[in-house]
## 1
Amino acid sequence: MNDDSTFIDLTRQHQIFVTRVIIACIVAIVMSIVIVARYFDLQITRHQDFVTQADNNRVHMRPASPSRGLIYDRNGNLLADNRPTYNLTIVRERSQDMEQLLVDLNGLIDISDNDITQFKKRLKRRKPYENTALKYNLSERERSILAVNSFRLAGAEVSARLTRHYPSGELFAHVIGYVGRINEEESQTIDTIRYSGTDSIGKIGIEKHYEDSLLGQVGNEHVETNARGRVMRVLSKVDPLAGDSLTLHLDRRLQATAHAALKDHRAALVAIEVKSGGILAMVSTPSYDPNLFVSGISQVNYSALVQSEDRPLFNRAIRGQYPPGSTIKPIFGLIGLQNEDISAEHTIDDPGYFYMDGVERPWRDHNSKRGGHGKNVDLAEAIIESCDVYFYTMSVDTGIDVLADYSQQFGLGRITGLDIPGEQSGIMPSKEWKRQARGQPWFNGDTINASIGQGFMLATPLQLAVMSARLASRGKVLEPRLVKARNGVEKPPTEQSAVIDIDSEHWDYMHRAMRDVVHSPRGTANRIRKDIGYNMAGKTGTAQVISISADDEYDRDKINQRQWDHALFIAFAPVEDPQIAIGLIVENGEHGSSTAAPVARLVIDEFMKNQPDQQLGQR
Amino acid sequence: MHKNDFVRQLQTPGGSMKIRQALNLDYMLTGILITLCAISLLVIYSAGGQSTLYVKRQLVFILAGFVVMGLVAQFPPRVWERWAFLLYIAGIASLAAVLFVGVEINGAQRWLNLGFTRLQPSEFMKICVPLMIASYIAKNAIPPTFKHVVLAVLLIFLPVFLVIQQPDLGTAILICASGFFVLFLAGLKRSYLISAFVLALAALPSLWFFVMRDYQKQRVLTLLNPQQDKLGAGWNIIQSTTAIGSGGWSGKGWTKGTQSQLNFLPESHTDFIIAVLAEEFGLVGVLALCGLYLLLIGRCLFIGLNATSMFGRLIAGSIAFTLFIFIFVNLSMVSGILPVVGAPLPLISYGGTALMTLFVGFGILMSVAGDSKKR
């Protein structure tokens, strides 16, 4: 190679290089434009979208749970409050591997299969980034184990929450009811926003009926979280509003007294404040601990409750329907008087049985030795000694439809309208009722059965109490009420209550007769009069569980205990100015006088203790 | 002789010009580098959750980088031309060593443990390969003949093959590109270019089926539809585009980026650092950075165009375009144009080995520049 060619060669090499650089530069510029266009697109054209996305990333709305309204008795005793409990919750998005996390957690604390099944169900219903509870009610030990290991449990956290607690346990279970987890069915119907701060809902009783007031208003917090879900700061918040606190008419002392007296029986008692219709006590035994249900009842506990022969979950006070037996006699007597089928002077002769025209079979008088109540039995005696034949005779004249019409005003055969759900209506039969319900015509024999509260007739203990209260108040029709005040404010009485159309003298007569049931030596409830410091009116009743033919004697030894007669009692006191009225039943208690009446005495005694004026006046 | 020049010029009174010439430092290049490194420290501080830990380490890397660059610059280009083969052999050996005694992190075996620090030999190959190819081609005919092209391609593919084994497809492609640029700038015939292009296209399916691992395929699929697996493979790309997009024109302000500060952004101080910058300084910040990069690449090309030797031209040009490709791949990957590969943003991402490689490259550039100025 000579210098010349080398020179040419070098120039050519340089030119090739320059050309290639230019080509590469052009390509590079095109690529740069693509990049710049991409960043322009992201940062300018779609800027708003990404701002929103970045905010969605970091800002989360957390519901702030309102505390559920408290429930007090009339004296300010707390019947339902809220206690802090600690729950283990998981945010699925923040756990890298949820199944592994569950395994890890199970290695640290005890998590049952049921917990996991329930958790997975809940998981399906929740919103993204929402806490899902895995285990409730962590013990202090479990909490500290989780705290120590929290660094390797991404996605799991222990959260404090207020949980319903019923300090009186089983005492008020049937009245107040309980809250429980929102189940799948409920989650379809509830307003999910209102319930975003809680996973509990009132299931029965006051808790259910007043759910709307007790729930409160959910608040919220906008929080900034980092990628691991850790809250960095609170950006804004709206405080939750606590639910209304409710004051009930219930009196804890009366409730406790009644419960203690009845707890070994299957029984129910309802006590009503005569002047207001407020429920002073409402007991159904056996009862159960409502606290079991709050954070999910275990299968074992639940089966035990459901399978128990005594049916502790069954609210006898409003759902138990029993033949009212002789407790019906006072109102039937009043109806007879008002309807002028009988008078105060009217008497009958009671041979111990009653024959109706054209019927071979006699109706027996259950409340007398063979031989009956004797001659010249008037209405007072028929009430005091509970003579059946008097009412057999009277009822045929009065007729079932008149009896039914009045009885309904006393609260029988229809829902009383108490402010808890689940009430049964009982049955106050009439000709119309029988045609519709049974498709049969009414017979006079049916009237005779009904005249002593048997046959088709059924009433709940609540209805007995309402009847008793309306007897006491001389026919003032007040709906029974549990809630007395909301946030301390009493609801003013609204409508003028209706009054059952019965003459004043008849009320006087019946009050006297019912007083003598307790206070007369001949009264069926006379055994409770000992040392009584006030005037109590009452009426015993016995309801047959099985029918016994007229010829057979009721022989308790031959009958299974569960088929023994039910014992009933209605009462009010003091007779002069009635304050409290009671209806109660003891299943298979046999006689109202021996089993039921003493309980009424105990409860009314307890009530009268706090009525100093009355006590002084009567002594 | 070189040393004598150096001593003589130092002893000559006056003239910082002369000292500069003696040290072979290109002021413009140095200025751009210092600016970029300063930006790097600022962004790393913010990305690292405002801890000075990474900043301090990176500062050490930068200072070491400048020292290395200065040292490299002291040797004239022909020294590097001569030593290229040895460096290449050493690089291949260390790559082979990685496969046998390398440290495995996150399922990839890329590092050699030197006791005091870990070294990523594949990073060094990004400079060794273009050096090797440039010296090989410059020694022979320009434009390269078929024989030389074949040999050069083999020289490129040997390290590429080794890096794929680690596996590190991203780096392998970048090494491949850096070698290819030398061939291209040397005037590789158009017919070769076309056939190489066709071959590469034809090789794509086999790349998919035989070379790419499942996670690599997943990354490609994710690019096509990041929403498909929001919390898994799609997470990175969703979070980085969100960070970039929410920055807007002027950004949320230094250390005020919610995506990076609240840890939504993965790898925020390394591969995804541009997302932090874009979120906190906005499009203005991104464009400013791109401007600096253009200056830097422009300066490299200027040095290349003014180089006196073919080797100098080729190495300067290939470094310039390789740098461009690094930047392009990183910016595209973070903004969701290309699949996620392990490619840091040159001079800005945290990381020592990549920085060293770059500074070695700039040192060689300065050596080339100094050489042409002296003539």
## 2
Amino acid sequence: MYGLITRLAATPARVAAILIAVFSIAFATPSLLAATASTQTVEITKFAYAPKEITVAPGTKITWTNRDEIPHTVTAKDKSFDSKALDTGDKFEHTFATEGDFEYFCTVHPFMTGVVHVRKQ
Amino acid sequence: MDTNDKTSPLALDDTHDPNRRKALSCLAAWTGAAVVWTVAGGVPRALGATTDGKTTAAAKNALTFVQISDTHIGFKKDANPDVVGSLRRAIADIHTLPQAPAFVVHTGDISHLSRADEFGQARELFQELKVDRLHTVPGEHDTIDDGLSGYLKFFDHDGKGKGWYSFDQSGVHFIGLTNTLNFKMGTMTSLGDEQLAWLKSDLARVSHSTPVVVLAHIPMWTVYAQWGWGTADADQALALLRPFGSVTVLNGHIHQVLQKVEGNVALHTAMSLAYPLPTPGQEGIGEPGPLKVPAGELGKRLGIRQLSVVRGQRELALIDRPLER
């Protein structure tokens, strides 16, 4: 294994490839982290929230978009947020300021459930 | 039993002969202990039999009324871009019935999104019905954001600010229930204690020999719990209804004809006038969303139901009439 790495690093082309990879990681990672902290999306499709469960950091804004031909809602079990009826293509946003587990459902199809876990990361 | 109609349903034809209702009430004379109503053993039903001679003949001395359901005014998607056209075809079909129905009942989802313009448009369309009255119950699409308040602005039956009511006609006790207000996370809908208490007190004044017809949007039996196709506390309501000799429960919501008979209680779901839905848990579908069917098929999956309460006959006769046959 060790010998293989030594051999791979030996050619200039491979060194360049590795350098590009390192730079990519160095520049891409901070912006990826920033996106994770600020906004996430959940699709409502085929009478389900996708993803059904999501874990985010405090301060994250989640945007739900209804992709079904039937109206749905995003309604917290503890009533802390409620989208009202979302027609096809309608969006709902909510920012989760505090840690906790926030269960939600669709008030017209209560078998549709989801949960947002808000955790310091 | 009081046979006067004390409710104020949507009056559809102000020019109609006011004596008609009185005349219909006279048909109530046949009711009484001597007539035992039962639907045990099944209810005759002829799918698509528009000129069923037997049923048509029977209807001549019967109280007949029509059930429509799930018009979803405001829906414009591929599954049916013209729900208004579908409703108008149904209205035309109702007008061709051999015996004019005494009234029409609508078992909910009048609108698609509970919007005032949808309720308003629906109400205007219903005015085209050449029948005395329309009795409605709300569907979950009619109570989606603000409960009953938007619906009641257009379809308040008795001015009491409730979705539930009862009335008597031709010796039949009709009850409209609301089972779209108590959705709790992860469960089916329910009627709720307040409504059950009202139902108990309402039925207390009705003799057990009186045929009872119950209207409610979501099925009053568990058709398919995974899709919420049932009412969690329906058993409590059915327990109150079981002592009656003939109970017919008319539901909508699932956009297809299904029935269940339990002793004297027969429960029926109806076709929609908007779009078809899959059969319960239909393989390869996965969710209860609108089904897109070939254009020529749609009219066969939508339709109305004619019901006849025939003097001297044991059964309530039902004919489901697709728009296209």
